[in-house]
Every structure is written in C-alpha cells, then in structure tokens.
Amino acid sequence: MTHTQSKERSLLEKFNFKLGDASDEYIRRRNLQMVRFMSAAAVTIFASRFAYKSTITRQYVPTLFQGNHAPPLSYNFTTDAAVAVGTGTLLCGSVSAMMIFGTCWILDVSTFKEFGWRMKSMMGGYEKEKELAKQPMDEESAYIQDSLNDLLEGKYDDVDFDAPEPPASLK
C-alpha cells in the first residue's frame, strides 16, 4: 500500500466510513466500477457534443435573397442520413453504457452471474425457493424425479422388474 492509499484509509477510518474497513480488493473493484461509469459518462458527453456540432453544421441558413423552401443543390441526403444514423447509434450506445455501468456501480455488480444473484435476492427469489422446497412433492413429480436421477446415475441399462409402477396419470 502506498503512502497516499494509507492516508486515504486512515481518513476513511477516522470519519467512521464503512469503506475504511473494506479490503483492498473491494476498494479496487469499486474504483473500477466508478471508472467504467465515468468513462461512459465522458463518452456520452463527447457524443452529445458531436451530435450538436454536426446538427449545427448541417443546418441550412439561406442568404438574404435565397429561398428557404429548397435546400442548395450541393446538399447530399445520403451523407446526411449516414451521419444521423451514426450519431444516433453513438448517442444510444453511450447513454445505454452509462446507465448499465451506473446501475452496476450502485448494485455493486461486476459479472452477469452477480447481477442474476442480486436481482434474484432483490425480488424475493430465495424466499420463494425456500417456500417451494418445503412443500411436499406429489407422486407423479417424485416418480419423474426418481427416473431422471436413475438416468443421470447410469441406471438406464438395468431393468428392475420390482420397481414401483408409474402413476396412472403417466401411463
């Protein structure tokens, strides 16, 4: 740990921030999430400035005696459309990246798997799974589960004539 890092750590501990007790790996992870968000925000600012400038430069401003109902003959609709599509895509991608990285920074998520776990816990998925696991299994489901377990264990070649008969609803 460098001198500035230890100074920062002691300052965080002095003011009783929870981050002062965090591991170095956690602090690095949070810094990386912050850098990703800030980079996406910088690209968004750049893209919006670029879109503004390209819109202003393509604006048709007629001189005093020119008509404003028809663009000049040197105007290229294809180039204008290509620039519009490119600029719109750049803006959409940068804003989306900023939103995604910001959400991941807020939720402390770095991978898709962590995102799945976080969403599952936020939406009450673990409690629902526990409730479902406590419920008794019906006869048909138990038979299907036992059959699948036998297949996974490699017991599909062994024919057991003393095995229980499948439920009537599965025949």
Features:
171 residues, mainly alpha, 6 helices, Altered inheritance of mitochondria protein 11
Care to give the gist of this entry?
It is found in: Membrane. It comes from Diutina rugosa. The protein is mainly α.
Polypeptide structure, described:
By secondary structure, this protein is mainly alpha-helical. It has one domain. The chain has six helices and no strands. It has helices at 3-14, 24-57, 77-107, 112-122, 125-134, 139-152. It starts with a helix and ends in a 19-residue tail after the last helix.
What number of domains?
Answer: 1
Q: Report the strand count.
A: 0
Helix and strand run: HHHHHH
* Continuous helix count: 6
What is the terminal separation in angstroms? 69 Å
Using only C-alpha atoms, the radius of gyration works out to 31 Å
Q: What kind of oligomer do you see?
A: single chain
Estimate percent helicity.
55-70%
The largest pleated sheet is described as: none
* Content-based structural category: mainly alpha
Low-confidence stretches: none
Gross morphology: flat
**How large is the share of residues in beta strands?**
under 5%
Mean pLDDT figure: 82
Give the helix/strand layout:
Elements: H1 3-14, H2 24-57, H3 77-107, H4 112-122, H5 125-134, H6 139-152
Helix pairs in contact: 2-3
